[in-house]
Input
Amino acid sequence: MKGAVITMGMVALGIVLWQSFVPESSPVQQIDLEEELIASYLREGTRRHFSQDGVAADVLEISVATRLQNSEETTLKDIRYQARAENGAVWDIEAATGIFFEDLNELELKNGVTILELTRDATMQTESMHLYMDQKRAQGEQEVVMTGRGSRTSGTAFELDLQSSKATLKGGVRTEYE
Output
């Protein structure tokens, strides 16, 4: 009987000591289910679309792509889009940021857009534009400056057909020749 009492005392002492060594529990963090969660994340990505004859018709390169849960939009950083026109002209479009609408295959480019037409050595610059990749056309509603060999043309909006290599500047169009 004396052994049972000593054993019970040792067990009780062990429990007391054990609980004194248990760290204080940290407060429970509540998760806001309304908070936007990242559904997918990509670094250094390239998407190629090929024509029927096997040539790369357009190439989209990005440094970062992030898509949030329950969103139809993917935010992009450091964007480069290249397209080949019917006449062989090569278009090279770069932007700092943008939004990719996957279901529509469209890009909203922002924070400085540079458009190069490499065969004619022409450059267009604007703050933002919408690129319709399936139709290979773009439009912008902000000031645009187009420079080419010996001229500089500006306007308040533009349309661009990448297939036919035709740019149309709109509103307050002004050209300076060198």
